[in-house]
Amino acid sequence: MMRTAETMQRVKDIILIAALTLLIAAVLVLACGASPAEAMQLFIQGIFRNRQSVAEIFVKACPLILTGVGCAVAFQAGFFNIGAEGQFYLGALVGTAVSLSLPLQGPVNILLALVCGFLAGGLLALIAALLKSTFNISEIIVTIMLNYIVINFLGYAVRTFLKDPEGNVPQSAKIDPASQLLPIITSTRFHAGILIAIIAALIMWFLMSRTTIGYELKAVGFNQRAAQVGGISVAKNIIRCAFLSGGLAGIAGVIEVIAIQKKLLEGISASCGYTAVLIALIAGNHPLGALIAALIYATVQVGTGSMQRQLGVPNAIVNILIGAVVLLILGRKLLHLETYGFLKRKKEAK
Amino acid sequence: MSQLFTLSFFTAFLAAAVRLAVPLIYAGLGETIAEKAGVINIGMEGVMLDGAFFSFAGAWYSGSLAVGLLCGIAGGVLMSVLHGVICIVLAQDQTVSGLAINMFALGLTSFLFKLMSQGQSYQQVETFETYAIPGLSKIPLIGAAFFEKDILCYLLYILLILFTIFYKRTDLGLSHIAVGEAPHAAESAGIPVHLFQWTALLVNGVLGGIGGAYLVLVQLGVFTENMISGRGYIALAAVILGRHMPLGMFAAALLFGLANALQIRLQTIGVSVSPYLLAILPYAMTLLAMLGAAGRSSRPESLGKPYVRGSR
Amino acid sequence: MPLLEMRDICKSFSGVYANENVSFSADKGEIHALLGENGAGKTTLMNILFGLYQADSGEILWKGKPAEFASPREAIEAGIGMVQQHFSLVRNLTVLDNMILNYSGNRFFLDRKKERQKLLTLSERYGLEVHPDARIADLSVGERQRVEILKTLYREIELLILDEPTGVLTPQETSQFFRMLKDLKNEGYAIIIITHRMSEILEISDRVTVLRDGKKVAEHLTAETNADQLAHDMIGRDLHGLTYTEFGEKEGAPAAGESADKRDENRQPVLELKAITRRAGKHTHALRDISLCVHAGEILGVAGVEGNGQKELAEVITGLKQATSGELLLDGKEIGHASVRERYESGISYISDDRQSDSLIPDMNISDNLMLRDYASPPYADGLLIRRGAVKENAKDKMKEFEVRASGTQGAETKVRLLSGGNQQKLIIARELSDRSRLVVAAQPTRGLDIGATEFVRERLVRKKESGGAVLLISADLEEIFAISDRVAVLYDGRIMDILDRNELDIRRIGLLMGGVTKESV
């Protein structure tokens, strides 16, 4: 009985939050001097225009799934990895370097680029994990600082050692077509990396819910002290989750390069590393939740893309909305009528 | 290399360091005050960003710096009030709330800025003038760096001194410390814990807002998307390094200012190192400094733990 | 006209009455004891008076006038002070700062010089010796209590409420404390003392009110009552097995069964500590040169005032902290460098004094908490995979065997944070007292539990010993130590003062040892 009441409350919350988010969206659209009804129409049209536009949802979701699931795993273990952005870029950088420098092209090249990207992202996150577990230094500050360091280093790399010798723009040479992840649905950009992302999410879900590794990570996340008293190594698990989390972001970076951009350049993350934080929070740190949240987010992105083109509604609207959703989730108690009933009673008592 | 070590170089260098440190110090002071009262605001980045945008918008539409500053303050306060509702009223996780606020502020300011600019680039708004303080500004080396500044910078010096006295010498300051250390003990000493946390957060918003506004109204005259670029987080680091005291935080923030100024100076005198590598300097310094300060924790004992009345 | 009168006070928390129509009064120059078991509603009643809670109904008359205190501040300003069971001190501030916190005469600038003088005067007048500039974190529990009392006196109160003030004191400190209370009483202060110790009530109070299950069941003049009557009022039913006896009666009581020498011969040592020392700071020690031995089939009680190294002792044995020097043997094998997990696997289990933070993961459910120790080994796990079926089965069995009751319908899926304290402790016992455990380190295992749960826990510990296990029982509750220990070690300032056999137990002697008097001078 308790369970059903809780579920009911949850469903109510979700509906309320969705409705409020729509309302905020409408207000923002109005603020741009456009009509919400028209915007809605364009939004839906933008998504279902054709197979390309539907495929585009998955293309946009791919890096978000990987980074989002990565953040979810880390958060679940109590490690606030805000560094997915930097891990993404380091993965992209190392993946590109590996892909370009290997003499052989083809699947082996792809595999090696992915593995090295994973390691690069993972090792970057490991720095923060080691500093946290040995010196108790805030991983939030460390991962943020590392983001800026990596982003600047990338700027350096694409102007120097990774610069395309034949071009004059700050970007790397083109990845050999044989070593690219090609579209698997014709005439769309739906590439094999998307499958990698979805499979990664499924693996992480299985890991978290069905294995002793997941049990340890959750135990450490919920109550570090009790986990330690119970005989679970906190440091080992923080390192483990950071490595996994950073590695996933690293893979996202590699895929973005070898499937979409075909070369390394600045700004390719589209801030997905930061969006990932919010996606993990919305998903309640559940890997499959993160998968779904990333897909919804990407859908909204595609839809608002068409709104921007036709109505001039800035697509930064998506960023406001996702921030608002997290704040609404945190503030959901304010949506419950009981909250106010309680306040009233308290006042009457006085 | 000889031109590196002239007196005028050091003077200019120090002046730049102070200039670059002021926004950090404002935000750091705001964060110190919030953390003293037990509320950690990871959302300082968002508070500053909001302060920067609204001060720009305010100054742009009104043509008045004062209005701009007030708008910047209001923008900062808006974010810390949001944080307060979630963390104080609803007792939710302060870290999660702070992160959400950063992202929300980023979206909000980018959206509004695009709406405002409609894609075209803006001219600068006017910036605050500097006033040299007679006498003090003539001190060699540090005179020009510290005493040939704008009014907001002077205000900051006063605030730093006032808050140092506040925590060391006043009844109210002692009560604020008690709230962050042991809210239950504070409550039973008759201190209204939530009220104190609210006031601390409001001050946090005001100062964080000024910190963001300072970038626009004193330093740059323009707003750009995500222009705070990690300063909010560096301010958090400065608070930790400064051992949660205003003057300590001031020194730590000045250190970051120095790193940043050094980086810029090296670029301008044409050192043959990529500007991208030099730009890493302040961030790397923050990391090193955190490492150096590891193990000497000064954080208030109940920092980040929501206080619910009547519970234990 | 009494100084204070509380009439028909009712207070409920989520539908359960904590106080039901309780009336209570206090006079100047009187010590009024409030007696009752844990959860009887004593503290709730006093928290209402002190403004921490608001009553649902009923009224408070202060000096004859109706009063309601919305906050402690209002109560203090009216002249009511309270020393809570968990002290309300700020650990990182000095004694002086704690005292003047929010109450210095000046509303803005502090005059620490003047206040310091005031503190010294007060402390001299009532013999409450403390150093004004010491940080609270560096003080002993007894000193902290002195600071708490000074705080209330500084605030010029007329009524002083003390919640279980002697729980943290040695018997010697207690009698000194009682002398001070009598002084205060003679000066005209009204004093309310909350306690569950009958001996203290008989010694110090003028009047006693007994609460049971939130209701007032009796009010006596102390001179006209006795321990039996009070015990009956307080408990309201007979206990099987364990009875409340006054400490004095235990003096020289013969040990159950064989003599000490005979036991030692037959029983092999399970845990041995040889000269274990643990440094806390550069010059300070948490544990000094501790040597002791726990045999199979024995409960070794560790008595002592809390904060004298109990936590460190438990953590050095269970592997959470490392000893700086010394040897730690389990069944004759050195385990000083083994991890927590390895020690558990070789038979050391741990019931921590801090259930919520050390032993449970409140946001996980019952079955997940039950496998916290063994999740990685069969039957729960098959390699890396967790076998859900086995986990569920285990939870079902354990919940039945150890009488863990979850409200609601989710059974083993219930989040542990929704369980009552007693059920949480039963869950921990169910997990830690497995067949595998050879030695149980039990720290304050019955703290905060009701009588039923307390009995259950003690019975399980005794059963463990009877089946050949060893138990190290760390408790600040002497009554508990006396009830089930075979031998008793006394811990003071990180040192073992002496280890006494059951037939040598003597309350005065233990008290002196707890207070740091060496066995030679005892």
Structural summary, described in words:
The complex is a heterotrimer of chains A (350), B (312) and C (522). Chain A is 75% helix and 0% strand. Chain A has 350 residues and is mainly α. Mean pLDDT of chain A is 90; it is low at 344-350. Chain B has 312 residues and is an all-alpha fold. Chain B has a single domain, classed as Orthogonal Bundle (ABC transporter involved in vitamin B12 uptake, BtuC), CATH 1.10.3470. Chain B has helices at residues 7-36, 44-62, 65-89, 94-117, 142-147, 151-169, 171-181, 183-188, 193-220, 231-241, 246-268, 275-278, 281-292; strands at 130-132, 148-150. Chain B has a two-stranded antiparallel ribbon with strand order 1-2. In chain B, helix 1 runs antiparallel to helix 9 (193-220), helix 2 (44-62) packs antiparallel against helix 3 and helix 11 (246-268) runs antiparallel to helix 13. Chain C has 522 residues and is α/β, with parallel strands linked by helices. In chain C, helix 15 runs parallel beside helix 16. Chain A binds chain C through residues 1-3, 210-213, 215-216, 218-219, 222-223, 225-233, 349-350, and chain C through 54, 56, 70, 318, 320, 339-341, 343-344, 350, 352, 357-364, 368, 371-373, 375-376, 381, 384-386, 388, 408-410.
Question: Secondary-structure map with pairings?
Answer:
The complex is a heterotrimer of chains A (350), B (312) and C (522).
Chain A: H1 2-31, H2 36-48, H3 51-76, H4 84-101, H5 107-135, H6 139-157, H7 192-210, H8 212-222, H9 224-229, H10 234-261, H11 272-282, H12 287-311, H13 317-330, H14 337-349
Helix pairs in contact in A: 1-13, 2-12, 3-7, 3-10, 3-11, 3-12, 4-5, 4-6, 4-10, 4-11, 5-6, 5-10, 7-8, 7-10, 7-12, 8-10, 11-12, 11-13
Chain B: H1 7-36, H2 44-62, H3 65-89, H4 94-117, E1 130-132, H5 142-147, E2 148-150, H6 151-169, H7 171-181, H8 183-188, H9 193-220, H10 231-241, H11 246-268, H12 275-278, H13 281-292
Antiparallel strand pairs in B: 1-2
Helix pairs in contact in B: 1-9, 1-10, 1-11, 2-3, 2-4, 2-9, 2-10, 3-4, 3-9, 6-7, 10-11, 10-13, 11-13
Chain C: E1 4-13, E2 16-26, E3 31-35, H1 42-49, E4 57-62, E5 65-67, H2 72-78, E6 80-83, H3 95-100, H4 112-125, H5 141-154, E7 159-163, H6 171-186, E8 190-195, H7 198-204, E9 207-212, E10 215-221, H8 227-235, H9 260-266, E11 269-279, E12 285-295, E13 298-303, H10 310-318, E14 325-330, E15 333-334, H11 340-345, E16 348-351, H12 355-359, H13 366-370, E17 381-382, E18 385-386, H14 388-401, H15 421-432, E19 439-443, H16 451-466, E20 470-474, H17 478-484, E21 487-492, E22 495-501, H18 507-514
Parallel strand pairs in C: 3-8, 3-9, 6-7, 7-8, 13-20, 13-21, 16-19, 19-20
Antiparallel strand pairs in C: 1-2, 1-4, 4-5, 9-10, 11-12, 11-14, 14-15, 17-18, 21-22
Helix pairs in contact in C: 15-16
